[in-house]
Amino acid sequence: MGNYVIIGTQWGDEGKGKIVDLLSEHADCVVRFQGGNNAGHTMVVDGEKFISHLVPSGIIQKKTCFIGNGVVVDPEVLLEEIAYLGGKGVDVSPTYLRLSDRAQVIMPYHKRIDHAREAKKGDGKIGTTGRGIGPCYEDKASRVGIRFLDFFKPEVLRAKVEEALREKNFLLEKYFEEEPEDLEKTMAWCLDLADKLKPYISDTSVAINNNMDEGKSVLFEGAQGTHLDIDHGTYPFVTSSNTVSGNACCGAGVGPKTINGVLGIVKAYTTRVGAGPFPSELFDEVGSYLQEKGVEFGATTGRRRRCGWLDMVVLKNACRLNGLTGLVITKMDVLGGLKEIKICTGYEYNGEVVTDFAADLDLLSDCKMVCETLAGWDEDISGVRSYDDLPENAKAYLKRIEELSGTPVDMISVGPGREETIVVKNHF
Ligand code: GDP
Ligand code: IMO
Ligand code: MG
């Protein structure tokens, strides 16, 4: 099958978990390469629902799963997730799950700072997931982060935590006017978790490359979405990592020549959780219809997702930034029952129509969407398994997406279940 990157094209929650789980059947390994437990990936298998925040979605199909060096990992959450999946009969032993010794640890003080900073920002807050993601990546870039490797050198760890706490406690006490974090308590937390996680930790870059050298195929499972990317998204309303396909190489420790294709996951409409510009957002009854019919609540924080029309400015940006070789359109079933369906093709701003996704948040916040209108369909398509059996208007919608994006639609998802999928082109 080769090695594929699976990437979110919008603002996250496009259905990456479902598609990675489905494609895992044909893969040998699945790798997470960025983000942390801000992600919430849902899989529905034989009617049973699984949500994973850190463990790659290939775990249900018993594939070797790697949490790469680019991921920020809350060790407590990882152990909880291992227990949760184990309780559902999934084998999450070190045979199937490996954690990079280079991955950064989300420390208790990272979560404290994430919360305190958001609270202080008040109305201007980003609406983070509160999982300590930003503060952990900050420490990585500042070169004061704790890596899992450090867990096994108690003296080195103590010196690093002590140094970190001097700064963090100054911030917590003097700036945020909160209680400090205790060194001994933090050390005890680390050492207890180190013991439990030890069997999982190794050099994952070496292992992933060894697998590829043996001809095994690897799926790289993106988290968040292209427009939450720290460079290319709606900065500062973004996450703290690069979410685009190029980061699969850095975050997993593989070379770019190993990647054979990039699949972009596209929700048939658009959603966003948290604050930040969203040009095709709908505040009318259609927005409510999508929110309710699509059950648009965040898998991590349970927050209501904002909803809007499919945005081609966004999708074209994702095609270019990720080098998408194919699209997977998800949640097509949710559009059923609408009289007409719109596609946002540009943004009107200061009397001009802009068709490239701009860096300027003023433009993205104050523009008016320019749309083309297509006819809807009434049929329930959740039982459809072949492209030919889709209603003509659904086919016309998909064709238009292909034309406007210049990228083929390889798969269509018509329900949350693994089997509720139409495969147009099988790469695998
Ligand atoms: P991810 O973060 O990209 O993995 O997406 P999430 O799991 O956060 O959100 C996607 C939601 O849509 C989940 O509840 C999925 O079970 C659900 N879902 C995925 N594909 C479809 C689909 O084709 N139709 C419907 N109705 N639901 C879907
Ligand atoms: P998956 O992988 C949707 C959003 C948060 C917030 C912003 C920054 O499930 O698609 P952070 O905690 O990362 O510092 O928050 O990013 N966000 C997501 N939105 N899906 C996700 O992941 C997200 N991960 C982060 O809501 O707006
Ligand atoms: Mg999600």
Describe it:
With 428 residues, this protein is α/β, with parallel strands linked by helices. Helix content is 32%, strand content 20%. The protein has helices at 16-23, 75-87, 108-121, 133-141, 154-175, 183-197, 204-213, 247-252, 285-293, 312-322, 361-366, 392-405, and strands at residues 4-8, 29-32, 41-45, 48-52, 64-67, 72-73, 97-100, 104-105, 201-202, 218-221, 261-267, 270-272, 306-308, 310-311, 326-330, 340-349, 352-354, 368-375, 409-413, 421-423. A ten-stranded mixed sheet has the order 9-7-5-2-10-1-11-15-19-20, sandwiched between helices. Strands 14, 16, 17 and 18 form a four-stranded mixed sheet that branches. The chain has a two-stranded antiparallel sheet with strand order 3-4. α3 packs parallel to α5. The chain is globular and about 65 Å long. The relative contact order is 0.15. Bound molecules: guanosine-5'-diphosphate, 6-O-phosphoryl inosine monophosphate (IMO) and magnesium ion. 6-O-phosphoryl inosine monophosphate is lined by residues 8, 12-13, 38-41, 126-129, 131, 133-134, 223-225, 228, 239-240, 273-274, 299.
